[in-house]
Write a structure and sequence with these properties.
Elements: H1 3-7, H2 18-68, H3 70-77, H4 84-100, H5 104-117, H6 122-129, H7 132-151, H8 155-176, E1 183-186, E2 189-193, H9 195-207, E3 222-227, H10 231-262, H11 266-298, H12 306-316, H13 318-340, H14 345-367, H15 373-381, H16 383-400, H17 406-428, H18 433-436
Antiparallel strand pairs: 1-2, 2-3
Amino acid sequence: MDPSGDASGPAEPRPLSGSERREYERLRGAAAVRHGRLRHLGACVLLVLAVLLSPLAVVATWLHEEITDPHRYVQTVAPIARNPGVQSTVTNRLTERVVDRVDVPAITAHLARNLDKTGAPSVVVDGTRMLGGPLESALTNAVRRVVHKAITSEQFPVVWDAANRRAHAAVVKVLTGEGTSAVQARGNAIVLDIGTLVDNVKQRLVQAGYEKAAKIPHIDRQFTLVRTDKLDEAQGAMRLLDVVGTWLPAVTVVLAALAVWTSPAHRITLLATGIGTAVMMIALLVGLAVVRGVYLDSIPPTTLPRSPAAFIFDTLVRFLRESTRTLLVVAIVTALAAYLYGPGRGARVVRSAAARGTGAIGRGLARVGARTGGFGRWLDTHRAWTTGVVITGGALALVLWNHPTPGSVGLVLGIVVGVLALLGILAGAASDPATSGPAASGPAAGGRPGHS
């Protein structure tokens, strides 16, 4: 054997022929197409799920906060006690109930009998029986004045808020079974535990000199208020709402992010996400308007006038509407940003105009000696990176904002745009305008058209 042949190692691979290379390129292209189709399909599925879940996530979050957060609930219902229309309706309703409990005809009849027994003239007795109408009218006016004064006083909203806070806490404790309260859930019944009240009464009696009160025997201190087989279902619904209200918004955001990341066309998918979410938020607002109309039509005017009923509905759902409008604004801003980053003619015009404007201001600063030097050149070189950092910071600010509103979104958007403009100006003031020229901030500096 020739040792030199063994030392040469494995033979070099034979170069592909023309036909073999064409077949290789064809197979490689077909695999790339299949991979791209799978990514498009996966991104579409994730996108559809995220868009369809977005209104459910908004409603679930709203319900979860209203039911589990007593401060948010009281903040929701507080304006009801301060509305003049509601105050007038409550005043009339309470006045009617108080006057209905007073038997005015019986009073006038009793007065007439007493006058008749004392030998009063028949004219006086007959006139007393006719006092029913004036007496009822006077009583109604007197009661209405007292009730209206109480309801329109500064103390009534405080009492209203405190009563709603206590009622909300009791309901939540019954539905969750957590915490200590006189009203508790026991199996399929809601019971009232008066143990603390009994001990307090016994202690007060002993302190008042009734020593034998300390020997009051132990009694059953729990009274059943309501017994229903729906209590377990209500508690189960509360547990489900707690899970859904907490995790559904996060799942929706993750699905949308995965859709954008999975898609071969990131910008187009982000644009579709913004448009789809905006459409769903508009649909949710339309749905609320329809429900409002159905609700108002279902309430007889004798039960509740239309104006107070509309105010109560609008008050109860105002935070839901505000959240929906906020997400609508965020979706529109997201879609607009995705479009402006693209290769469209309108996007190029906007980017070029912005670059020329910031560049002109920067060159003007450089002319008066306010040059940014190396820092400005670094900003110009890393323009895409700094833009991403600023946009990410704005998005993080909205995420951390407690209950953002359309106004807060506009504020954050204004700050982001202002910071980007400032960075563009600083980049434009990097060098001497006599050497850089206008081309330094021309269309090329405005940012290359984003890839889909």
